[in-house]
Amino acid sequence: SALSVGVTAPLTAFGSTALKTFASFDDSMRKVQATSGATGDDFKRLTDLAKELGATTSFSASQAADAMYYLALAGWDTNEILTATPGLLSLAAAAGMDLATAADIVSDTMSAYNMEASQAGVAADIFAAAQSKSNTSVIQLGEAMKYAGAASNAAGMDLAQTTTILGIFADNGIKGSMAGTPFTSMLDDMKNKSKDGVLSIGSMNVALYDQQGAMRDIKDIMFDVMDATNGMTDAQRDQALGAIFGAQSMKGVNIVLATGKERYNELEDAIYNSEGAAAKMQETMEGGLGGALRELNSAIESFSISIGDRLAKMLMPLIKFATDAAAAFAGLDPIFQDFIIILGMALAAIGPVILALAA
């Protein structure tokens, strides 16, 4: 009785938990395999990385597998997933968010800018710096990028330039999907209201394109607009800008003009010089007791996965036998099914009957 309570029951419970943990991890990795097409050594490398991250970081192996799944959905191959996953893990830890969500946001945004998978660390650092230096979050930036990404890329803008504008909007309460609309409207209005690539604002002309026909940096254009409206009364400025920008884009224009050049340059410099920002923030975020406990939980899950993996290999023949037996029972004549059930009930009653007679 003591062995049953003190040894058998705990080990059975742990074995059951380990099997369930491994089954969940195995299902996640098989989704990665089915989506990415990875087989053989490639799939083993992905599985080993997920287990390694689960054993050594605050994220579990199952969470790493879920992140890999979203990268596979974006069309990334095995090497690209292997390269990008650690950087995305740093971003998720720095932002205090779910790893799979971070992978989904970054991969979608990178697709909008035609960025290669090897630049995932760059994108992660940009998002981390924007969250650190402006009043927004990675999730809100991801929502804004759904609307702003493709439009800004078509205008020749890179991720850092776009993130700077969105960060300035966020400082003024325009965040998430709300920020995407005025941003794209600004670009559309400037292109549609220009004449021969030039915007007429008061007595000044603001060029949209350089001598090679490429659109100028949005910062330079907006700084020229600031100079063109400098010294105007409110009425004169509203009239001059109203001839170019509609109601939606005017929100964004007014925010940028009110922000000024100093704050704009400060945020842009921080974002362009953001290398290592995600890793540094991760170190700070995970340096306390909460991070230590999360890392402990991940290590325990990794241990459970290892045990469950070995148990699964041992139990698979038994599971197959039980499956075949169940299928065979279902195909028996009802008379034989009744006989087996009655026999089972009789066997189940033997123990209680013996105890009763002994009493």
Task: Please give a quick description of this structure.
This protein is mostly helical and 359 residues long. The protein is 78% helix and 2% strand.
Describe this structure in words.
By secondary structure, the protein is an all-alpha fold. It is built from 15 helices and 2 strands. It has helices at residues 2-36, 40-56, 61-73, 78-95, 99-112, 120-133, 138-154, 159-171, 177-193, 218-229, 234-242, 247-272, 277-285, 289-330, 334-358; strands spanning 198-201, 204-207. Strands 1-2 form a two-stranded antiparallel sheet. Strand 1 and strand 2 (204-207) form a beta hairpin. Helix 2 (40-56) crosses helix 14 (289-330) and helix 7 packs across helix 8. The longest helix has 42 residues, at 289-330. The chain is elongated, with a radius of gyration of 30 Å. The model has no long low-confidence stretch (mean pLDDT 86).
Strand content: under 5%
Measured as a percent range, the helix fraction is over 70%
Order of helices and strands: HHHHHHHHHEEHHHHHH
Low-confidence stretches: none
- Rg, nearest Å: 30 Å
Report, as a whole number of angstroms, the end-to-end distance.
Answer: 18 Å
Integer average pLDDT: 86
Lateral arrangement of strands in the main beta sheet: 1-2
Can you tell me the overall shape? Answer: elongated
- Report the sheet with the most strands, covering strand number, pairing sense and barrel closure: 2 strands, antiparallel
Count of separate DSSP helical elements: 15
Structural class: mainly alpha
Total strand segments: 2
